Amino acid sequence: MAISSSPPIYNTDGTTTARSLLLATPEKYSSLSDFIDPSKPDNRDLLVKTYGDQGITGFLQLTGAVKAAGTADEVQWWEEGRLHNIQEFNNLGAGTAPAGTMNCVADDGSTALPIYVQKNDVIMTEDNQRLIVTGVSGTAVSVTALDGTVNALAADTGNRKAIILGNMYGQGSDQPQSFNQPQALKRTNPYMIVKGNFEVSGSQATNIGWVDLGGGEYRWYIKGEQDTRKRFMDHREMMLLFGEKASAGVTIGTDSEINGSEGYFSAVEDRGIVASPAVFTSGIGDTTNGIDELVLELDKQGAASEYAMYLDRANELAFDDAMANGLSSASSLTGVTAQFGAFNNDKDMAIELGFKSATRGGYTFHKHSWKLMNDPTLAGAVGTYHGALVPLTTVTDAGTGTKAPALELNYKAVNGYSREMEHWVTGGGVLGFNNGTKDTATFSYRSELALVTRAANQHVIIKG
Question: Could you write out the DSSP letters of every residue in 79-141?
Fold first, then answer.
């Protein structure tokens, strides 16, 4: 019995199509794999840290900074001035006469300055003249040379310095009619508010990605939130390091006035020691631009015996070379006493925290690589700053007598409410947060804080 072929397909335009053209014949069926591929991609779910651990926080903690609560819009502290004062002057004249007049000036060249010398004081100039003060009128100080000769100050020699040796009085004379007030310098720093946020929609919060974020967690929004938090912490630390007070209040749009806040580098640039990057490349024995010059400057400032050095890679290598060429290494000290007080006098603890130590001129330097300075997307992109030397000591507050570390991180807090690190989530039912109407979850971060850099004159930054 013959089998008839299948009837044709009648198209709408009256033409016909042979049904055999539409049959799933083997040669046609073999091409379906081009459209349907049931195999799973050969995926590697490890997230590669292409740039390593990019976090930069830890500087303040490792240098011994403490945290303290603040209850005002700015933090204030007090620093003791020098016990002895140097009188700067110019225009000392009278040739070979026994008497002359010196015009007192401030170290910045202005005339609005305190006069430290008093009548009957004995002073000594830079060329070793011993002069006794016979009178003070404004900035003009009358002097007589004890050896009978006053050496004139040439007009082009600029300002000179005189130290106060003491005083001399005649028999039956009265006590001094004036005195120098003790110097307690009041310093202030406004608090700054640092903010950040991250947002994820409800739909994205339920999506599964290809990367294992740890512990079998594949929700990619978690990575976004983690990065945002870390970025916020890094921004907060960079503001504490590089922040600056505003010379005048800054208003942005309808925001309240922003006064800025003094960061670590601003404080040291203003009243501390600024060394050039050649401080380590010049090496040992150089008292004009090397480690020994730095040691001499620290002596002048009554500095602590221990320092934490945070350096970029170039200066770290230069310091290693200096160690090899004469600086005593704390790992193999012979007849040299290294200080490890900052690490409970435990050298192993210093090593565990990533510090390598060396000593020179009675100072122990604990070296640590500073990722912030090497990162080409952070301070490494600017190339101006190369490191910092922080004294590992406590200083005494001249106003309260309280002893505190050289660096203090202050944050606003009162009655259990702290603004050190605020974190909260709002959402319209997303991830279980039912305090909004928008189909998102918003992660918010906020800190209100200020850094206190005590005795900045003992701190060193490397800049240039």
Answer: EE--SS-EEEEEEEE-TTSSEEEEEEE-TTS-S-------TTEEEEETT--EEEEEEEETTEE
The Cα–Cα gap between 40 and 210 comes to 12
Neighbours of 167 (CB within 10 A): 15
pLDDT class for 227, splitting at 50, 70, 90? very high
From residue 197, alpha-carbon distances to 254, 441, 443 in Å are 20, 10, 5
* Residue-wise pLDDT tens digits, 313-326: 999 888 888 777 66
Q: What is the pTM of this model?
A: 0.77
Cβ-based neighbour number of residue 15 at 10 Å: 9
DSSP 8-state code for residue 205: H
**Main-chain dihedrals φ then ψ at residue 374, nearest 5 degrees:** -95, -25
Provide the percentage of residues in the chain whose pLDDT is more than 70.
Answer: 76
- Residues 320 and 281: their CA atoms lie apart, in Å, by 10
**Separation between Cα atoms, residue 176 and residue 255, nearest integer Å:** 56
Side chain identity, residue 342: A
Lookup: tokens for 181: 């007030």
Give the whole-angstrom CA distance, residue 316 versus residue 427: 48
388-400 per-position pLDDT tens digit = 999 987 765 555 5
